[in-house]
Write a structure and sequence with these properties.
The complex is a heterotrimer of chains A (489), B (101) and C (492).
Chain A: E1 5-16, H1 55-67, E2 71-72, E3 75-76, E4 79-82, E5 92-95, E6 102-111, E7 114-127, E8 131-133, E9 142-145, E10 152-158, H2 165-181, E11 194-204, E12 214-217, H3 222-241, E13 249-254, E14 259-265, E15 275-276, E16 283-284, H4 287-296, H5 301-312, H6 316-322, H7 326-342, H8 349-371, H9 381-392, H10 398-411, H11 415-422, H12 430-443, H13 445-452, H14 458-469, H15 476-488
Parallel strand pairs in A: 12-13
Antiparallel strand pairs in A: 1-10, 1-11, 2-6, 3-16, 4-5, 4-15, 6-7, 7-10, 8-9, 11-12, 13-14
Chain B: H1 8-17, H2 24-41, H3 76-80, E1 86-87, E2 90-93
Antiparallel strand pairs in B: 1-2
Chain C: H1 11-20, H2 25-43, E1 46-49, H3 51-66, E2 78-82, H4 109-116, E3 120-125, H5 159-166, E4 172-177, H6 183-189, E5 192-195, E6 215-220, H7 223-233, E7 263-266, H8 268-272, H9 277-292, E8 296-299, H10 308-323, H11 341-352, H12 355-368, H13 373-397, E9 400-404, H14 420-424, H15 431-436, E10 440-447, E11 453-459, H16 465-477
Parallel strand pairs in C: 2-3, 2-4, 7-8, 7-9
Antiparallel strand pairs in C: 1-3, 4-6, 5-6, 5-10, 9-11, 10-11
The chains are: A alpha+beta (489), B mainly alpha (101), C alpha/beta (492).
Amino acid sequence: MARTYEPVIGLEVHAQLLTRSKMFCGCSTEFGAPPNTHVCPVCLGLPGALPVPNGGAVEMAIRAALALGCTVRNRSRFARKNYFYPDLAKNYQISQYELPLNEHGRLEIEVDGVKRRVGIVRIHLEEDAAKNLHPVGAGGDTLVDFNRGGTPLMEIVSDPDMRSAAEAEEYLRKLREILMFAGVNDGNLEEGSFRCDANVSLRPTGQKQLGTRVELKNINSFRFVRKAIEYEVMRQQSVLDSGGIVEQETRAWNVEQSRSFTMRSKEEAMDYRYFPDPDLPELVVSDEMIARARAQLAELPAEKRARYRSALGLTEYDASVLTSHPAISSYFESCTNELLKACEKPLSPQQAGKRCANFIQSEVMRYLKTEGLGLQVPVTASRLAELIAIVEIGAISGKMAKEVFAQMAATGKAAKKVVEQKGLSQISDASVIDGEVERLIQAHPEQVEQYRSGNKKVLGFFVGQVMKATKGSANPKMVNEALRKYLEG
Amino acid sequence: MSAVRISLEDVRHVAKLARLSLDEQEIETMRKQLDSILDYMASLEQLDLAAVEPTFYSVAMQAPLRTDVIQPSLRRDEALRAAPMEKAGAFAVPKVMDGEG
Amino acid sequence: MTEGRLHTRTLVALSSLVASGEISSIELTRLFLDRIGRFNGRLNAFLTVDPEYALAQAAAIDRSKQKREALGPLSGVPIAVKDNICTRGIRTTCASRILENYIPPYDAHVVQRLRKAGAVIVGKLNMDEFAMGSSNENSAFGPVRNPWSLERTPGGSSGGPAAATASSLVAAALGSDTGGSVRQPASFCGITALKPTYGRVSRYGLVAFASSLDQIAPITRDIRDAARLLGVIAGHDSRDATSYPGEVENYEVECGKAIKGMRVGVVRDAFEKGCDEDVASAIDKALETFKQLGCELVEVSLPHISYGVSVYYIVAPAEASSNLARFDSVRYGLRVLGEDLFDTYAKTRAQGFGAEVKRRIMLGTYALSAGYYDAFYLRAQKVRTLIWNDYAEAFKRCDVLLTPTAPTPAFKLGEKTGDPLAMYLQDIFTLPPSLAGIPAVSAPCGFSSSGLPIGMQLCAPAFHEGRLVRITHAFEQSTDFINRRPAAFELD
């Protein structure tokens, strides 16, 4: 009888920090510059150059740590991790080993209604490696571009607390979201600013002792994480089922073939010869620095969702769409605030929130998608609030607003300007509408009689006539009211 | 004569870690020399160090923190000038597979 | 004007001559370039001499002088720096094949400071490869010879700076000291060297050997010159995270102050065992001199300094093994193409590094490798704490500590090359202060029966360089050792 096994999964995430300059030198961290133009003696590892830590990176790592419930160490230490590789300028990476900056955090996840608290062992600071390129035209050589070399990285190491690929994926999504909302990482998996390795082992269900773990590298999308872990669980299970032993090794995921391959066996395991970096005295973080980081820590996505529901009355779905990215939530929040301030008609926060949520989720997001703009909304939040306010006071219809928005996005003009120039303004002038209604009543005495003798359907005829006469721009609500007044009065 | 402190196998392993190509003669000489040095160092084993903290930094200091501002980088031609082989604005090396190392 | 003897004057004296207009910097620079041309062949002290670069700097100083601009404290005086100190546009080899043609794109912090102070840098000085050695025989470009006796070593690793200064090929030089690398050569060559407290001088642009120990240090004719030079290069540098942020004291004003009542600690067991007789008697005489100058002699013991050699030769190679990993032929340096990348690295490093460098890389890699870190590296750093504590205790009872600089006067070239351990034991007195990070001076205190210079080492607590200047100056004034010079280079 085949035994059942429980997968045990731990994740190591490397997240680039959103600093302007590198971890140990003043070179720019900008992505996509021509090769080897953001380099200096320090990040090229030239003889005699020395590292000086970036205070901005330290602050960001502390902010991330606080968002993940970590304890920040007042004294931590940089260490050298020694290994030879051409993308590593000094052939050692400055990292942290003993005494990392942050320890003992946690992250709550929920998959299929099951909640789990995943422990975070440590979050430490280190420098990123450069990039090895293998272009076809290089005559088989590898080319090294040191622009990325030295970019600040946080390594976030979880406890082996996850029990399925789905949980691992959820952990990563949650972690990415938190780092993005803490303003420390852009969450860009394609550009490699958020990367993941997984440690996977199996143990017979009910057993406490952990099985032999296999490290999976190069799994840089949520989909691959899931596939690679599922593949690895199956692979280990079939090894165990056929009476074999799982070898401790490092495997790399191959995207094209959807399978993993041995990269390094246990015998070939690296001997990193960690030791405290003598170029860098201890990193001392004062309580004031921690307090400052705490004060700068923005509201996290889970807190935002709860607030959107309770204070703004949004549905769970709306709240989660609007917190899918910090850029969207901040756009939504400032739009709502502007609307409350700008609208001539007093609105409750719930009303304002609902109006903005609807408009952003329908018009704005659709526009971004069809135009391929990513998250670059071409209309500022305050201008969008103006547009929604115009709808709110009845100056234009909701249908017109869509057209106005598209015009605003295309031309960069304010809502009022577009409405004016296009003559889109809805007729809400009571005297104009009254005049039109009076004229029609006098012209159609028969229909007036029919209405007054009980055929209320005739109202529709009059509405149609007013609309026709005003080319559809009369405020329908006001037309209805005026007609009733004249017909019944 | 004291016990052998370092074997030929150890020397080969360390040479690999350090990326030093040594021939058999050099390995043998290196082993002997390292052995006598390590033997001299064995005197450290006499000390009781249970309650002693290590001194990694002889002068007590704390790491200064740099403000996160961009400083000028090297010009690319300066950065590449000393490269043994340069191609397309990058440093060229014999082919490696990613993930090795 | 005794122009023929100008080269024998000190850095301080020569800079006043330039400042007062008695001689131009160009004249002075030509004079020293001429001496280098005549004598360097015998000594092999210089690896690179750049007359064009030197004369351009000298001309600039002379122009400033003509325009009546304020001149710096080293105005117009030719000096040279050890070849592990980066100079923009000038070859910096570390006396290694692996950097034989390397030209840095930037100046070391100290080079910037020297130039700002008006010094004329004439070239780069020979050394033991990557500063690893005690005899200068580990240079890939041949050993330096001792000006007092050409078949002898000038000491190491700053053999070039010491030989060039002692033979007046330059007025002064900068060396680097990791475990005695300026002090022992100064002692062998009859001149003065002042190793500052760790962190006092920025290491930015000094090619690292052992980062927790390396310091750049002046090598000079007398202590006032050392004080002047240290005043120029000392001070905080934001590019070195281990650079000490405290104020720099005025070292030169210590010259001439009385030392009456100063307590000189004597570590008797340190030099009575295993020390050359001439050295021991020179130290005894020095103690007598200090007594006559009103100092109080205090017997102190430093029970753990005998472990200094073991601790140092674990810690320094460990750091070196990591520091020298960057020489891989990717971004600079020699490349020996192999079958694949691994082979290219291994062949490049095997051909690029000399025997001693390889030995230390091996030793250091071993001391850090899996299973040995605790037994070697960590243990050594713990014993370093005991040595540090020894000094802290000793300095409660005395103001400075006196030992010989080296156990012997200069030995013969080739004498110790076959026995690495015997060579390491040369550093027995200079290593402990380095491990404790404290400042130490080596100053001439006598001559052996065969006429070779002998040096004494004085150390003080961290950041008390001024105290070392004061006591050394008082000693100089009451003795005549600094005025003797190697005859072969005084023909003119």
